[in-house]
Amino acid sequence: MIKFDSIYKKTIELSAKPAATFYLFLLSFTEASFFVVPPDVMLAPMCLAQPKKIWRLALIAIIGSVLGGVFGYFIGMFGFNLVQPYIEQYGYQSHYELALQWFSDWGFWAIFIAALTPIPYKIFTIAAGVLVMNFPLFLIASFLGRGLRLFGVACFVKFFGRRVDYFIQRYINQLGWLITGIIGIVIIVEFLTN
Where is the VTT domain (predicted)? Predict the structure, then answer.
């Protein structure tokens, strides 16, 4: 049986290591263009482990994420034919079609909302490149959306710090299994509806 409390403690330990900042940047970059794990998962424990560096860590995550979004934009602009089979294979086709619809309806706001929420931002960055969205607007929307989201995580940890840590340590196993169950249900629903 998985013990999420030991995984959480190990994450906190690793978050205090010097190389963790690079991994936070790398995770933020890759999540915005092709990877599935959001930077929030690493940012929050790092902020708990290094409370004096909270704003710096949030800024690193934001910069990494926006640069990853730019990479996604260029994937869409120059290499969409290479990634389209993966979008279909991993079940993101409906998200991609939604992104195209949102761009035709809302443009700037589509990127902003995707950058701010748990909607797969990477799909929107690629779609923005495919549709050759106005690049300065793309950058502004990405920076504002990711900035609000990741600075929001940092603020949450800053103001509730040890209480958040206490809550997580006390309920980590229940939270871990709850999240695992939700992910499992989403996968099953996605499989059954495709």
Answer: 53-157
Distance CA(142)–CA(129), nearest Å, equals 13
Tokens (6 digits) for 1: 């049986």
Q: Whole-model pTM? A: 0.73
Q: How far apart are CA 94 and CA 133, in angstroms?
A: 20
Other beta carbons within 10 Å of 5: 16
Say how far apart CA 47 and CA 43 lie, in whole Å. Answer: 6
Domain containing residue 186: 4-193
pLDDT digits (tens, 9 = 90+) for 62-119: 999 999 999 999 998 998 788 778 777 877 778 778 777 777 777 788 888 888 877 7
Whether residue 4 contacts residue 172, with contact meaning beta carbons closer than 8 Å, is answered with: yes
Distance CA 177, CA 172 (A): 8
Whole-number Å distance between alpha carbons of 37 and 64: 14
Instruction: Strands of the chain (E only): list them.
Output: none
Per-residue DSSP letter, 39: T
Q: How far is Cα 110 from Cα 126, in angstroms, rounded to an integer?
A: 12
**Angle of helix 135-193 versus helix 54-89 axis, rounded to 10:** 60
- Please report how the helices 20-31 and 54-89 are oriented relative to each other, as an axis angle in degrees rounded to 10: 40
